[in-house]
Amino acid sequence: MNATSSHHTVPRLDTDILLVGLGPVGAALANLLGRYGVRVLAIDKATTIFEKPRAIALDNEALRILQLAGVRDGEFETVAIPQVQYRSPLFGRFARINSAGIIDGHPALVTFYQPELERLLREKLAQYPGVEVRLGIELATFADDGRFIKARLEDAVGNETHVRARYLVGTDGANSLVRRTLGLDFEGRSFHQDWLIVDALDVPDPIDHVEFTCDPLRPSPRMVAPGGRQRWEFMLRPGESPEEMERPESVRRLLAPWCDSQRIRIERTAVYRFHAREAKRFSEGRCFLAGDAAHITPPFAGQGLVAGLRDAANLAWKLAWVVQGRANERVLDSYDTERRPHARKIIRLARMLGAIVMPQNRGAAFAVHGLMSLLRLVPAARALFEDMKVKPQNIFDQGLFWRVRGSERLRAGTMLPQGWVRPATGGGPVLSDDALGLQWAMIGFGVDLSARLPAELLQCWQAAGGRVWQWCQRSQAQHLAPPVQRLEALDEALLPRRVPMGWVAIVRPDRCVLAEGPASEAETMLRRALELVAPSVSSAAATWPTPAYPIQEAEHAA
Ligand SMILES: O=C(O)CCc1cccc(O)c1
């Protein structure tokens, strides 16, 4: 970060990325950019993190993204959720989602305590020399001149700082100043009901799962949370004022049907209004929106923060590769193309679940819950809901990948499954993302790509920030020549059923499969990938600049 004082005494800062808003999505994005060696100035107008109850659920995808951002297992507390239940006063338990199990190395669903995660993510930023955090400072104005973002920041007493950045990312929440300044209106709808959120401690007979009591008179989700907490959410009825309902007596009255509410400790309360909205575009020129600044969803699918973390993972490597001169600026267009349709699908899912949780009236409740009770009797329909098949998969319709019709095994435009592997460099089993590190990966499944690819092409690939791997079955004999490194599979996440021996995949740093095919296509695939991440294959090795700060390597990756 270059800081110079002009003769007007207004400090000036130059950076690659100006990140506005350091909530969980901003902090995760700053960590990812820090790991990629990018210079970041991250600001937040608040001087401390927000302590009120907010997001509570993370799924396996979100946990995998946090893993990519450098969060290790056990660094913040999570509670695995075995199931989500839906109950009605009339029909009893009428639906259930089975959320037990591990997907891609992580629990399918957990609850967590947002302030703890935010603190952890902020602490982690200290390790990145390129990331500067300034709190208590606000974005006042900004303009995009086509080459740079020129921004004016202001602290609480009116001191100004001028910033010149190559890109601006707004992770500044639902009321995003960045989004409003760009004129990227929120589309969608808001719900008129207020919801009271209560975090409680010392609750007798706590539950170990998530339970929606879908009473049309007062829908009330309840769930287990870390630290011995239980959370309840109560829809407020017309005429109930938030101030009145947040009073301890009112909260204890609301909790009385569930527990001995006089004995519990009320930790925090908050009142929120839910929204289902998305910006009409997630980027404009050199500016990007992520998290609640780009989309907000009702909480009924537990996907609000997850969607924001998907944004962070998708955007971080693209910004890194572009600012480091390793990829054409056009790759940034794919952020909106890839992320917006999926964010919309998640909002649609949350609205559909919202119609189940908070039916408008008794008639609607009878119809919806009654129909769902009947559908449970049909095994296929029941499985659709129970096995979370209603959750839209993170599959891109369009974007930075290419599919070869008829020869798909892994499906380009989806995330590479994660498994446990043992790297040839030794050490114990590691999750494959940790072994692959932060770079592009070309993976030969059971095949030695060093024998199939011209040496100069492999050199270009390495210079562009790519690595070459052989993912082999346990104890499979192989002779590899550098630069190919070996990963020995310790489970069946990929080989042999998901992907056959002799298959090749090129995987982006965010673990999205760029291309896949038989080993006979490896050279064609690599040449095409290099067109994307290298402006000119022949001169690539000579002209690419190195990152401003070293890319953080995984300890176990060679
Ligand atoms: O209501 C909330 O705040 C989240 C509820 C939730 C948690 C986990 C899974 C899910 O489908 C909903």
From TrEMBL:
Ranges for domain FAD-binding: 14-348
Protein name: Bifunctional 3-(3-hydroxy-phenyl)propionate/3-hydroxycinnamic acid hydroxylase
Pfam families reported in the protein's UniProt record: FAD_binding_3
GO MF annotation: an example: 3-(3-hydroxyphenyl)propionate hydroxylase activity
Enzyme Commission numbers on file: 1.14.13.127
Key words of the record: Oxidoreductase
InterPro entries for the chain: FAD-bd, FAD/NAD-bd_sf, PheA/TfdB_FAD_monoxygenase
NCBIfam families the record matches: PRK06183.1-3
